[in-house]
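Appendix B. Worked example

We walk through a single record from start to finish. Start with the input: the chain for TLC domain-containing protein 2, Holothuria leucospilota, length 193.
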Amino acid sequence: MADKWSSCFLRWPEASADMINFSNSLMELMVALSVGYFTYDLLDLLYYKGFQSSWSLVLHHVVIMGSFSIALCTHKYIGYAICALIGEVNSIFLHARQLMLMMNYSKSCSTYKLNGVVNIVTFIIFRFGIMYHMSCWLYNHTPLIPPVLVGVASFGLLSMVIINIVLFYRLIQSDYLQVRNNDAKGNQDILSN
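Next comes the structure step. The output line below is what the pipeline stores for this chain.
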């Protein structure tokens, strides 16, 4: 599904040109399915990990669900939501990393290291790059958007920036600054905290 999200703007360049009004049924379906996925994952997180140990993911999910729900209810900003979904390309490598840790891969093994490099590169491009693009777009289009929605979008972007900076810091710390210590401890992962 990440392929469809990232190729959305290639298929429909109008979506990139008009992220407020342009949408079609496939784009709306992708956003609706994402709300469903994030809802399920939020309930799963709360049930199995609780709020204390996963507050950043809970906040991430709530912000995304709220923002995407506004887009679905108004039938506007679907292109903006699709743009946000492009950031999920990096989730492939974050999840692969988590699976490797669950399978007790050593952080010094070549597969883990390769995934780690791709993870960092895609994090910078697909998370930070997309958030930068979305921030610039929001700034340039503020006069066209109701003030309440500018506030919601600004809060959502600020939340995502903070969450992703914290996640990126934890990722760098876990995989590159404490590799020797974590291998000695049995691959404990600070990202799951």
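Two observations about the output. The mean pLDDT is 87. DSSP finds ten helices and no strands in the chain.
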